[in-house]
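Contributing new records

If you add data, match the layout below exactly. Sequence lines come first and carry their own label; structure lines follow with theirs. Keep one chain per record. Anything else will be rejected by the validation script.
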Amino acid sequence: MKYATSKTCSREIDFEVENNIVTSCEFVGGCMGNTQGVARLVVGRSVDDVIKTLEGINCGNRGTSCPDQLAQALKAYKASHQA
């Protein structure tokens, strides 16, 4: 799934989920070291665990961050895949 980010240096997050587990994650743009680190840390974890861990992280006065945007992306994913 591709998710267009808002209010962050990264422009987009590309990720895949199988059986509620994040199987891949890549940020487009942003601070390469930080976004690569976040992406590697979330692969293999459940969607709910990643949301719980990353939601609400703030970068400066933006009201969001790249990790928070990933949480928002996963929340959007969950909402679109509920029966």
